[in-house]
Amino acid sequence: MKFIKIICAIFMIVISLNMTACSNNSEKVTYKDGYPNLRGKHLVVYVASRDEVGRVILELFKEKTGCTYEYMRMPTQEAVARVKAEKEYPKADIFMGGTCDAHDLIKEEKLSEKYTSKNYDSIQSEYKDKQGYWTGFEVEPLSIAVNKDRWNQEFKCKGLAIPETYEDLLNPLYKGEIVIPDPNTSGTAYTMIASLVQSMGEEKAEKLLRGIKANVGRITINGYTPAQKVATGEYLIAINFLGDQLLVKNSGFNIETSVPKNGGWNIDAISKIKDGPNGNVGKFFIDFCTSKEIGDTLTNISKGMSTREDIKETEGINFSDLDIYRDYDFSKASNDRDKLMKMWNNLN
């Protein structure tokens, strides 16, 4: 009997060692031409960046690594809500894009996983989480877009200058002519609210936002649509990110863009969702998204400005030269969200 017990124990040890070896082998990844071979692997991504950004990057990742993928495009707050709702059984590996305060929020709620990318040192220090929970891949300032054709036909004769500041948007002549995203769903509009409160103080910002909201003719679900609505002339003025506006401008639409002095800005970040369904595959995707190759690609497909040290300009614009609110605190914006949304929703 004792001999049988010994034999059984040895057998269990051998099985355990074999399982460990198999597990270790399954995590081994070979490289070819600098890219990991991920054939047979899969990745699920929640994309809060524009659809074409997520699609192009994921297609390139598949082409270079062999990794298959699926993604869902959604506004920032919907992505956050999904990650929170799926806490016990995560369905996605990566949260990509959206405003940085959202990535801070899932970090604080322990829904993301710390990962220091191999490109971490190439990302400028102010554009990455110091603890390694998220990494920025592009930055964008908020901007005011004006349909130049409509302006010349309808408003230039009134002796007005093209709006360049938020205060300019208070003119009653613009009532019903402004389109903005909904801060309840879009990180773009929330960035505007939070940055104004931080830069001006809550009382002054609330007064300014009430005046702007009174002139708003339409509120959209996502942050990109306002630029499109102004490009086609449906509305005169849009507030959203500069990259969105440059994309439609470069498509042949006659719009003028102005980054307001002391305005807000955003870091488009990427986070690995804690306990995602496909293990460490997400880490390779984060490395890919923060590479110089993708940084160069983004300047063409999104018109955002890369966070990498070795990529300085987009469309001749250097982010460091813009007169924006540099002290914008993303963590504070994340913590203040409920309070500021209550303030905005009660404005009338």
TrEMBL record:
Q: Which domain of life is it from?
A: Bacteria
- The reply on keyword Plastid is no
Q: Name one Pfam family in it.
A: SBP_bac_6
Q: Which UniProt keywords apply?
A: Signal
- Signal peptide location: 1-21
Example of a GO cellular component annotation carried by this entry: outer membrane-bounded periplasmic space
Q: Does the keyword Signal apply?
A: yes
A single GO BP: thiamine transport
> In Gene Ontology terms, what is one molecular function of this protein?
thiamine pyrophosphate binding
Question: Would you tell me the protein name for this molecule?
Answer: Iron(III) transport system substrate-binding protein
Look up and give the organism this protein is from.
Clostridium gasigenes
